[in-house]
């Protein structure tokens, strides 16, 4: 199969490299010249474990290439995937579809022979129909189908998620397109991965429903954590106790500072807006969005409270800045809400993150960035764990204690045990667990 992938962001690059690894001939196209030049030189513009090696292997095998020129790769392609960004539109929270529609127009101009045009970007219900109209308008003679094939991969685990997914969702309106999509996913199909065929609108909605449901699960357990704190219960045990019920499931029940990232905040908001437009408001998701926004801000209050009500003249060490571990992505990261509040309350903030500091520098003012976790702690009055990078799980606690001015830890990801920290002499605060 010959595949053209438009967009070399997270989804495009990972999908392109994985499809090449399945044995297809893949060209990844992007308009950003410097990105394409970097990729051709073997440089990966995003931080994703395993991706550099996967790209290198497939480029070497001649199955994967990078191009600025859509017109050169598209006429030969069996399928053209649209994997461009769909950011939140400023002001109203709708998904901005201008890049998707532009790509559709450009594909239409150069396509040749039967082509399946696949939207892999996260797009609101109805986008596939609009893409179809754009192509028909631009090229009335074109022989094509428009398919929705949302992606469910997580940053930091993207390759594994792509190659061993729980399911693949394909929204296709005709058998010709279904057959071609089954062929593209043949290695997974043979592996007995469920391939869920639906109509296009259903497939488009599945993506938003999945992300909104996961965001709801997180928000639910975060509220339970708040209640646990009031009544002396332990949220991790509540999560385990309910999660073992197969109807609930144990995943995405880790209480923390609120969800962030490039997907949940944007997609929940877009779903709220779509539902409002169709006069079928999703009150649960509206509540989730509001609760999560407020929660990220509230986390700073916890730190201030743990520090005795004032941060004036105090130094706070921050471990972890990215929205989750194994990524350099700072989009909607809780640290972006928490740190400015700490600074407003008078704190001097010293921070370390294994991958996010470069990105963070443009987003957070007056933070002192250092080279390692222990460097944040020098004479610090408190340490706050915002992201659960593995390297923060195994700190030498004695060294942490002796480096700090006061042994005070606010662990917003529950990576340490309250009993062990108390024994080590720490004033230890976590989320939803008795100290
Ligand atoms: C999410 C979904 O998990 C993917 O299935 C989806 O494909 C992707 O969005 C997307 O739409 O592109 P991602 O944003 O990479 O993936 O990250 P997650 O691992 O889902 O984490 C999102 C946020 O939720 C993070 O801030 C994380 O810390 C938080 N989270 C997650 C919790 O607070 N508790 C949990 O139990 C799980």
From TrEMBL:
The keyword Manganese belongs to this UniProt entry's keyword annotation: no
Listed PROSITE patterns: PROKAR_LIPOPROTEIN
Any GO molecular function: oxidoreductase activity
Domain UDP-glucose/GDP-mannose dehydrogenase C-terminal: 317-418
Keyword Oxidoreductase attached: yes
Top-level EC class: oxidoreductase
Catalytic activity: UDP-alpha-D-glucose + 2 NAD(+) + H2O = UDP-alpha-D-glucuronate + 2 NADH + 3 H(+)
Keyword annotations of the record: NAD, Oxidoreductase
UniProt pathway: Nucleotide-sugar biosynthesis; UDP-alpha-D-glucuronate biosynthesis; UDP-alpha-D-glucuronate from UDP-alpha-D-glucose: step 1/1
EC number: 1.1.1.22
SUPFAM superfamilies: 6-phosphogluconate dehydrogenase C-terminal domain-like, NAD(P)-binding Rossmann-fold domains, UDP-glucose/GDP-mannose dehydrogenase C-terminal domain
SMART domains reported for this sequence: UDPG_MGDP_dh_C
Family: Belongs to the UDP-glucose/GDP-mannose dehydrogenase family.
Name under which the protein is recorded: UDP-glucose 6-dehydrogenase
Source organism (scientific name): Hyphococcus lacteus
């Amino acid at each position: 199969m010959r595949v053209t992938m438009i967009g070399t962001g997270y989804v495009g690059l990972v999908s392109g490299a994985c499809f090449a690894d399945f044995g297809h001939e893949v060209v990844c196209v992007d308009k950003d010249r410097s990105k394409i030049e970097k990729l051709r030189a073997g440089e990966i513009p995003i931080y994703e474990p395993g991706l550099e090696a996967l790209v290198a292997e497939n480029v070497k095998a001649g199955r994967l290439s990078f191009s600025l020129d859509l017109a050169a790769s598209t006429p030969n392609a069996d399928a053209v995937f649209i994997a461009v960004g769909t950011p939140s539109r400023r002001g109203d929270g709708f998904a901005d579809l201008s890049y998707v529609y532009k790509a559709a127009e450009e594909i239409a101009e150069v396509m040749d022979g039967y082509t399946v045009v696949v939207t892999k970007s996260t797009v609101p219900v109805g986008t596939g129909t609009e893409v179809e109209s754009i192509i028909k308008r631009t090229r009335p003679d074109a022989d094509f189908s428009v398919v929705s094939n949302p992606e469910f991969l997580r940053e930091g685990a993207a390759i594994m998620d792509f190659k061993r997914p729980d399911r693949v969702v394909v929204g296709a309106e005709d058998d010709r397109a279904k057959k071609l999509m089954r062929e593209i996913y043949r290695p997974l199909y043979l592996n007995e991965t469920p391939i869920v065929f639906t109509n296009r609108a259903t497939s488009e909605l599945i993506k938003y429903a999945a992300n909104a449901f996961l965001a709801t699960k997180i928000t639910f357990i975060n509220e339970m954590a708040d209640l646990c704190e009031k009544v002396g219960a332990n949220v991790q045990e509540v999560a385990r106790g309910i999660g073992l019920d197969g109807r609930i499931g144990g995943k995405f029940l880790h209480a923390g500072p609120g969800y962030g990232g490039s997907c949940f905040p944007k997609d929940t908001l877009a779903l709220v807006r779509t539902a409002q437009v169709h006069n079928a408001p999703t009150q649960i998701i509206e509540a989730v969005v509001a609760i999560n926004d407020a929660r990220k801000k509230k986390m700073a209050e916890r730190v201030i409270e743990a520090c005795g009500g004032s941060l004036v003249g105090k130094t706070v060490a921050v471990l972890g800045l990215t929205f989750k571990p194994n990524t350099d992505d700072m989009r909607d990261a809780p640290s972006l809400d928490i740190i400015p509040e700490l600074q407003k309350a008078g704190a001097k903030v010293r921070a370390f993150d294994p991958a996010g500091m470069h990105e963070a520098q443009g987003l957070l003012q007056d933070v002192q960035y250092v080279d390692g976790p222990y460097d944040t702690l020098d004479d610090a009055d408190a340490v706050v764990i915002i992201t659960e990078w593995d390297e923060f799980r195994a700190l030498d606690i004695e060294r942490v204690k002796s480096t700090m001015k006061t042994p005070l830890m606010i662990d917003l990801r529950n990576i340490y045990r309250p009993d062990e920290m108390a024994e080590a002499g720490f004033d230890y605060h976590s989320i939803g667990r008795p100290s």
